[in-house]
């Protein structure tokens, strides 16, 4: 069973680099992911992300995403949250554009171990997206829904039944699917795929730091974009 999961995840991660895209980009992302339990069942989560435009020309996206969590047990939880996303852009003439987006989301997360020490996470998220006007004064507010499936493996570089400190490898993949009003996004059911591999260090059970490569393929109306991302991520847990 362990080998089946890891083979599947590796194939998903590698497949991102095989997807065809008409344009290719390079950007840098920084992220902080925090989870905290307030009681046996209740807690909250927050992540903040900063993403550059192509060739790190400017800050393209800021994402702030808090949520309330209910833990059924140590391996299963649900979250209800809100996300605010800003998108800065440039027109062909070099003029700046700005578009805000608000999201409400619901998610279910399942965590389990495979083998001695490999932790595997599955996350199922449904997003209700409210996109605001862009800077060109058009009335283009719209609503859409998107489903996301995320799978992640944390693999310590040494066998440890209670991994609390040391180096690890992270493998993950996330698929995005437009399930409502896809014609408002890119007309496709498939929206994007993000495959990721990273090397990290766990300082304690409360803090991880990792640096990795993320392969983001985004489907546009008539083409696709392959974004090669260098990402640094911090994970804190209380």
UniProtKB/TrEMBL annotation:
<dbReference type="Pfam" id="PF10677">
    <property type="entry name" value="DUF2490"/>
</dbReference>
<dbReference type="InterPro" id="IPR019619">
    <property type="entry name" value="DUF2490"/>
</dbReference>
<feature type="signal peptide">
    <location>
        <begin position="1"/>
        <end position="21"/>
    </location>
</feature>
<keyword id="KW-0732">Signal</keyword>
<protein>
    <submittedName>
        <fullName>DUF2490 domain-containing protein</fullName>
    </submittedName>
</protein>
